[in-house]
Amino acid sequence: MTGRTGRGGARRAAVAAAIAAGTVLATPGAVSAADGGLPPKQPRTADLAVGSAECVTGEQRPYVRTVPRVTARLYGPGGGQPGESSQVRGEFEAWWQGEDGTEKRVTATTSTMHDTAPFSWQLPSTIPDETTVSWRVRAVNDDGASVWSSEGAGAPCEFVYDRTLPDAPVVTSSDYPDDNTWTPGAGVRGTFRFAARSEDIVAYAYSFIGEPPKMAEPGPDRSAEIRFVPKSWGVQTLSVQAQDRAGNRGPRTDYTFRVAREPAPVAHWKLADAAGSRSAAAENGTAARAGAGVTFGAPAPSGTPLTSTASLDGSGHGFLTPGAPVVADTAKDFAVGGWVRPARVDGTRTVLSQDAGTARAFTLGLTPAGSRPAWSFSVGGARVAGGLPEAGDWAYVLGQYDAETGTVRLYVNGREVGEETAAVPVAGEGDFQIGRARGAQGYRDRWQGEIGDVRAFDRIVVPGELTALATRTALRVGHWALDSAPGGLSPETGGGAPLKLGAGASVFRLDDDPCDIFDPDCVQDWPLEGDGHLGLDGVSGHAATDAPVVDTAGSYTVSARVRLTDDAPAGPMTAISQGGEHGDAFKVRFDPETSSWDLVLAHADEPGAPETVLSRIEQPDGGFGVGHRVTVVHDASANEVSFYLGGVKYAEGGTAAFDAPWRSTGGLQLGRARTAAGWGEQLKGVVDSVYAYEGVLSEMEIRQLP
């Protein structure tokens, strides 16, 4: 049952609270009042309700979609004074005008209860629909009856029982027509219109596939319009129902339309032009003139399609511009972004902007935020800032203005940073700028560092597209199968640095023990993967590279399969690590005291440095089974580390914030770690199939490791 909209929220809440008390027959501690031969008090209309709607007469009467239960608070002779109660019963009466013009009435009397209890009456099913029904109530005791609630200063309560469903709405859109055409594309906002013939439509309930349901309020002509941005390409369905004032929802209309792929940016410069060029070729839009402080052929972020970028020297000549605006209307949806590597992060430095007279319509870059720098995006006088720019580190930075919400957002490496901020755009009809921003005294806030793959959009950049733009594919820098070790060196499969085996370490192969596998006395140390594995004696056994394999100050992924020999190790045992002179930038060890695999990261290459630890409780192997694949992931752009065991990361405790990475100087170690006493935590067991990557493997890629 649904109530109408209108005044009286406080009254409705009071009645609802009384109803929620239930049909209590007596209140503990209440004192019965001496009635003294007096009849009850007149019920107040403020204490009457039709379902959850208050008592109203006239145009504000509620419409309900089921025959309602009416409720009332009644008062004995004492008028409901604190500490007093009386025995009363309620007499209800409802009436309406029948189709033949005669008045119809129904009545009901409740049982006798304390006047502290709510009194209610479920109206009979004979109540007609599409008819104004009036009702009233009075309280009765053995000494008489109160005045009816409708008399004197009171008034009858009214409602209309409406069980007629509204018509199915008609849905139309000129932006996304239901005609099997593919238009116009993911990220492009479209308008949809709902219309229904019913005269009492108060709302439209609608939902898109993959989106939460919402409500739209109609205008005076009973139609409604909504705006929607498709987040992906493909066939999409919009489902709509009209809702009337009684809460009835009519048949559903399913409107199917086809969303094309994301339209190309309105301007795009890879900035991968040949060294010595004085302009940047445009993939879309107009070529950009380069100042004398721009040098092409600079390095590009690894793991991206870019082959080179442009380096800007931070001087008055370090800029590029097409000499025209690229965001045609800054009051509509737009976004700008690109790959950047700052050489300096002090002060305010501009990646992208567009002139607006002697000011700028928007600016994307970095700015001081207290004592540290932050990425920032400003539109008009509003700014959103977040993230932590670091000199020498690549980042994909994108700022976006959403005209529907009137807010700006900032994304760094595909993740939103800062807080969405309301903005009032200003007209920006001036030139688009790369590496500088317009000020009252000329251009300023110049960029020093590299910039590549600059794009400007006249639409919303959808999540999947943003992820693709900001993703750097992890590059494998090492894979050791550990199937052989000629001359004590286990080769890297790509021809890189081998692992050098120390005393107490050996590579076991199946053909090293040719006993019959069907012989019950045949005991073999089965490899975990491939034809062999590295066996370590737990005393001095280890294998290591001469130099670091991954840059532990940047993003990396390192993984290995490990099986412990004992089911009750005497102390912690490290499977894999890489560190410096005094500590490990990371290590993965088994700790028998907590029966857990731990990822441990020291905050500095110093004795006793603080550590960040992630743990997974697990029983030791005892020399049996396939062991466990342990994987450590450091995402420098997000300042976090993750730990996977068997390709799985716990939702809680699997990831931790980590903003203290340092560049290790030692080689990759298998089977040992740095301790206060030197090398220690020797592993007794086997290690196999070691992988190392520059960059972050996705969860899917981690699960797909052997």
Could you walk me through the main structural features you see in this protein, from its secondary elements to its overall organization?
With about 700 residues, this protein is mainly beta. The protein is about 5% helix and about 45% strand. It contains three helices and 56 strands. Strands 21, 24, 25, 27, 32, 33, 34 and 38 form an eight-stranded antiparallel beta sheet that branches. Strands 39, 42, 43, 45, 50, 51, 52 and 56 form an eight-stranded antiparallel beta sheet that branches.
Summarize the structure.
The protein has 706 residues and is mostly beta strands. Strand 32 and strand 33 form a beta hairpin.
Fraction in helix:
under 10%
**Rg, alpha carbons:** 37 Å
Helix-strand category: mainly beta
Count every beta strand, where a strand is a DSSP E run of 2 or more residues. Answer: 56
Q: Provide the low-confidence segments as ranges.
A: 1-34
SS summary, helix count:
3
- Report on the biggest sheet: 8 strands, antiparallel
- Quote the distance from N terminus to C terminus: 58 Å
Q: What's the average pLDDT? A: 91
Shape: extended
